[in-house]
């Protein structure tokens, strides 16, 4: 198997987790359409858009009541964050439930490392073997990283991953206890000076040729992303929470950031919360947010969440 093929296979595990965040910002500008998709669901945004205003209003009120855990008719940042994270996890779980049987051919309820390797078509290289082929060495490095994540997700100390553990393995950004592994992994990859942070230089990496002083378009764009999207406290480096925002966009930190964004956009009286009246006054913005997966939730049963 070639290195590029292995990388493609390993990337499949993270395809779902990144999806909800891919269009959150377009040209470094916040995309309100993404917000609607998070709250109601991107698969049904078009159908939701065909509702008349009164139907949309009724559905939005239903959602507000589900989010309002303490029934005070106000949506706090915490309530919004928990709801958003719940939506993220719902879609991740649906994905895992669909894929799990393929990786568990003997239907014993667990996916072994061997079953996973077989299904993915991966090759196993001896950890201690001396490899002269740089491509094989790269394959072994990536495979070992995959195995470490597999073992970290296996929390019950039995052989193989059950469904919740397989969720943690394939969608680590949806499972809180995987945050430590995610941060450790990104630090081992990027933190060259070992200070526990990721600087802009470490984030960009060595992309210029010898003597080339002109940054590429990619480098310019990634620099903007680093400064505007990830480095929230503007100190020129990514702390652990900011690292999660970068590599695990569907984590609680990401959900809370989206919740703070919604409060900032809709809280007109400055009390730090969103009232039902403020939601209805900003009906279009609310529909176009992560709270409604944020359009999909207007047309699906809320008993499922």
UniProtKB/TrEMBL annotation:
PROSITE patterns: EF_HAND_1, EF_HAND_2. GO terms for molecular function: calcium ion binding. It comes from the Eukaryota. It is found in: Endoplasmic reticulum lumen. Residues 55-90, 91-126, 178-213, 254-289 form the EF-hand domain. Keywords: Calcium, Chaperone, Endoplasmic reticulum, Glycoprotein, Metal-binding, Repeat, Signal. InterPro entries: EF-hand-dom_pair, EF_Hand_1_Ca_BS, EF_hand_dom. The keyword Metal-binding applies. SUPFAM superfamilies: EF-hand. Pfam families: EF-hand_5, EF-hand_7. GO terms for cellular component: endoplasmic reticulum lumen. One of its GO terms (biological process) is protein transport. Residues 1-17 form the signal peptide. Probable molecular chaperone assisting protein biosynthesis and transport in the endoplasmic reticulum. Required for the proper biosynthesis and transport of pulmonary surfactant-associated protein A/SP-A, pulmonary surfactant-associated protein D/SP-D and the lipid transporter ABCA3. By regulating both the proper expression and the degradation through the endoplasmic reticulum-associated protein degradation pathway of these proteins plays a crucial role in pulmonary surfactant homeostasis. Has an anti-fibrotic activity by negatively regulating the secretion of type I and type III collagens. Interacts with PCSK6 (immature form including the propeptide); probably involved in the maturation and the secretion of PCSK6. Belongs to the CREC family. This is Reticulocalbin-3. It comes from Gadus morhua.
């Amino acid at each position: 198997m070639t290195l590029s093929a292995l990388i493609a296979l390993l990337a499949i595990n993270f395809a779902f987790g990144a999806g909800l965040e891919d269009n959150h910002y377009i040209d470094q500008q916040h995309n309100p359409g993404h917000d609607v998709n998070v709250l109601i669901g991107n698969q049904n945004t078009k159908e939701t858009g065909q509702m008349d205003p009164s139907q949309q209003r009724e559905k939005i009120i239903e959602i507000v009541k589900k989010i309002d855990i303490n029934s005070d008719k106000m949506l706090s940042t915490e309530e919004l964050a928990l709801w958003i994270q719940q939506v993220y996890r719902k879609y991740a779980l649906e994905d895992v439930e669909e894929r799990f049987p393929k990786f568990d051919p003997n239907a014993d309820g667990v996916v072994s490392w061997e079953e996973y390797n077989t299904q993915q078509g991966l090759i196993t290289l001896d950890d201690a073997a001396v490899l002269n082929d740089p491509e094989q060495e790269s394959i072994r490095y990536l495979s070992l990283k995959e195995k470490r994540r597999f073992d970290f997700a296996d929390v019950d100390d039995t052989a193989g991953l059950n469904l919740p553990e397989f969720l943690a393995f394939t969608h680590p950004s949806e499972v809180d206890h995987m945050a430590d592994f995610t941060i450790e992994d990104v630090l081992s990859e990027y933190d060259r000076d070992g200070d526990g942070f990721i600087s802009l230089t470490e984030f960009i990496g060595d992309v210029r040729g010898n003597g080339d002083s002109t940054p590429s378009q990619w480098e310019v764009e990634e620099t903007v992303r680093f400064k505007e999207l990830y480095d929230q406290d503007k100190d020129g480096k990514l702390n652990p929470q900011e690292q999660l925002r970068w590599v695990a966009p569907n984590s609680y930190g990401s959900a809370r950031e989206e919740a703070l964004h919604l409060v900032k956009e809709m809280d007109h009286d400055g009390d730090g919360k969103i009232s039902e009246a403020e939601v209805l006054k900003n009906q279009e913005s609310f529909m176009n947010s992560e709270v409604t997966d944020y359009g999909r939730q207007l047309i699906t049963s809320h008993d499922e969440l």
